[in-house]
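Morning. Coffee machine broken again, so started the prediction first thing and wrote up yesterday's gels while waiting. Chain of 184 residues, entered below exactly as on the submission form.
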Amino acid sequence: MDTSLISIIIIAIALAMDAFSVSLTKGFTQKNLTKSQILYYGLFFGFFQFIMPVIGYICGTTISSFVSTVAPWIAFFLLLAIGLNMIRESLDSDDEYIMDTFSFKELTLLAVATSIDAFAVGITFALLNMSLLLPCTIIGIVAFIFSISGIFIGKKLGNYFGDKFEILGGAVLILIGIKILLGY
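Came back before lunch.
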């Protein structure tokens, strides 16, 4: 399946919503982050959003020959599950991401946790026999930009919008899954 650039950008934005939400939280809970620490957030989130679809793709290619006839259904259910999980997590009231100080350990855990969805999208890319470099690069760049932007916006706006962006990201992934399913 040849996915258009617009679809790839939409997927990247949807995947970046978790990192954006976490970054918003960091912005309004850690007012003392330096510019270099903010840059680390962007780099870590961007890198893991880039690499996890690659890992998912590698895993997906090992099974794609067995499931090529059901690939659209698998893609749909993967994106549906990811989207619903993002929405469910956003409706939970606990603020699991809030911590008081900057640490690379925490940053790595947050970057991995927010990129698990990208791993599943990588499996979907493999099942749909998509190219990998352009989508992963766009996903990483968008996550980088959204992470840094989220921190700056969070510093200015506070806690009000965090969960709503994650709901939007989940809804977009579900809609993309439906689009993939209807395209076959």
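Residues 35-67 form the longest helix (33 residues). Going to sketch it on the whiteboard this afternoon.
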